[in-house]
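User: Design a sequence. Structure:
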């Protein structure tokens, strides 16, 4: 990869094997990737009562994830109890390094914690019901085309399915430079990847996307190569 003067962290693992890597422990602002966490918190609040989400709430959740609608995020942020509610949910989800902030988009997290979130959202032993896990993954699979960049660039031809949620914003504390984050899942014939790439200090959103996609592609290429001989006779 080319030299990058900003900050970058990557975490990935294969749910079908033992391949895994985490590089970088720095905390980044989430921007809109926290919307997946908000949805998980919302579903956790419903589960103990055995209540399904109302039609209105489901529509807000879909808008929040599929088109990254901020108004929908504000509404659901309030319904989960804002920062306090997200913190409680994160304890149940196994997140250890995510710090909710007054404004949801300035919540901070690490790549490792985002991998823990993705694991909780896909594991049969996680705190969410099978129906809730299917609901979250279904929305991440339906993200609108113009927002399907990021970790999905690491997919191989013929991959079975991809799930993604991206976050992007300018940071006043960084002179208005861009932070660009991407989390998701890529299911292939021999692998089921969970991957998170967090980054900041970009001169533009376009440059940030380029860096994130290169990082994701490089990491999964190396992990595939490292496991290429697994199972060979």
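Assistant: Done.
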């Amino acid at each position: 990869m080319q030299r990058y003067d900003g900050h970058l962290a990557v975490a990935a693992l294969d749910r079908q094997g033992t391949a895994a890597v985490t590089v970088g422990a720095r905390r980044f602002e989430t921007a809109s990737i926290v919307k997946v966490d908000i949805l998980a918190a919302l579903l956790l609040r419903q589960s103990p009562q055995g209540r399904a989400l109302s039609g209105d709430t489901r529509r807000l959740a879909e808008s929040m994830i599929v088109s990254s609608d901020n108004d929908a995020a504000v509404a659901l942020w309030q319904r989960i109890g804002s920062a306090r509610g997200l913190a409680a949910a994160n304890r149940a989800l196994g997140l250890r390094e995510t710090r909710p902030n007054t404004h949801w988009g300035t919540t901070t997290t690490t790549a490792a914690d985002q991998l823990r979130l993705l694991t909780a959202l896909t594991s049969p032993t996680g705190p969410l019901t099978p129906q809730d896990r299917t609901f979250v993954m279904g929305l991440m699979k339906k993200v609108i085309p113009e927002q399907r960049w990021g970790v999905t660039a690491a997919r191989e031809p013929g991959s079975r399915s991809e799930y993604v949620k991206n976050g992007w914003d300018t940071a006043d504390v960084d002179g208005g430079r861009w932070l660009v984050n991407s989390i998701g899942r890529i299911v292939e014939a021999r692998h089921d990847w969970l991957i998170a790439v967090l980054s900041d200090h970009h001169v533009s959103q376009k440059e940030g996307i380029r860096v994130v996609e290169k990082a994701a592609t490089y990491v999964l290429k190396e992990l595939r190569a490292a496991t290429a001989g697994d199972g060979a006779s």
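The chain has a mean pLDDT of 94. Helices lie at 34-46, 55-66, 70-79, 82-93, 111-122, 130-141, 205-226.
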